[in-house]
Design brief:
With about 150 residues, the protein is α+β, with helices and mostly antiparallel strands. It is built from five helices and five strands; from the N terminus they run E-E-H-E-E-H-H-E-H-H. Helix content is about 40%, strand content about 30%. Helix 2 (about 65-75) runs parallel beside helix 3. The longest helix is centred in the middle third of the chain and has 14 residues, at about 65-75.
Amino acid sequence: HLWLIFITFMVGITFMVFITFMGDTTLADKRKDRDEPNNRQGAVYKIKCSDCQASYIGETGRNLNTGLTEHKRATKNGDANNHIALHHQLTNHNIDWDTTQCLTYSTNYFQRLTLESWSTNLEQRPLNRCQPLPAPYKGLIHVVKNTGTSNRLQ
């Protein structure tokens, strides 16, 4: 519903005010939706192949659902610039979209790149290339891989 109300505060000055009613959806509902994992912005995420051990680690400043939609579209259209689509094209493997997981969040672009690189370097068969990690991180990756320490980012 949209109502238009004219309010006159002083003689000769009239303001137009638009009032909308959102129905059953409240502002609290909208805030809750934004807090759902796939709706939060700034995700570092993992998409797995259904038919082999390959996985893709990605990052997006937008919400995860938007990024997934773009990867699905690229795979459907055979976009050779998309690592997931290329894997699907070359191997005819299925991508396990349903088990996509958000590894962590950050609204800072450079933090997301570092977290994406960290996670990609921990993968046995990454589908993507990533930014090189500084030397201290490479030493930590070696320790984490060789000790079996959890690679969970939280």
